[in-house]
Amino acid sequence: MVAFNLKALLPLAVLITSALASPVSLSVRQSATTCGDTVYSSDDVSTCANAAYSYYSEDSTAGGSTYPHTYNNYEGFSFPVDGPYLEFPLESGSAYDGGSPGADRCVINTNGDYAGAITHTGASGNDFVGCSGTS
């Protein structure tokens, strides 16, 4: 007969119970995306999301612009994270710092979680369409 030391197993039981009781939050990873004919690397997308959250958390905007600002998702995208959402201009090689924003945006929520990438390219009026990976 094998004897178990229940006292020694208690920390393991607590760990397993805790893991089962509280769900693990997984961050959505930023990946490369294509908006119209423009290809953005995962670093570009990550830079955009990080800059947007930094400005938002500091209650400031980039270079006197209005970005980041609220994105209402009138188009009804199925983002993998809950809102409220913010949009911020997506650029290659660096974070947007003011001026003309171009057509492409990264979208984050107010917790700083990446939601997706959207573009005015190919959309009617001031609407957006999803970049690759955003639907």
UniProtKB/TrEMBL annotation:
Q: Which reaction does it catalyse?
A: [RNA] containing guanosine + H2O = an [RNA fragment]-3'-guanosine-3'-phosphate + a 5'-hydroxy-ribonucleotide-3'-[RNA fragment]
Q: A Pfam family in this protein?
A: Ribonuclease
EC main group: lyase
The entry lists its GO molecular-function terms as:
hydrolase activity; ribonuclease T1 activity; RNA binding
- Highest taxon listed in the record's lineage: Eukaryota
Query: Which residues are the signal sequence here?
Result: 1-21
Q: Say yes or no: keyword Magnesium present.
A: no
Q: Which UniProt keywords apply?
A: Disulfide bond, Endonuclease, Hydrolase, Lyase, Nuclease, Signal
Q: What is its EC number?
A: 4.6.1.24
- Entry's family note: Belongs to the ribonuclease N1/T1 family.
**Protein name, per record:** ribonuclease T1
Protein species of origin: Mollisia scopiformis (Conifer needle endophyte fungus)
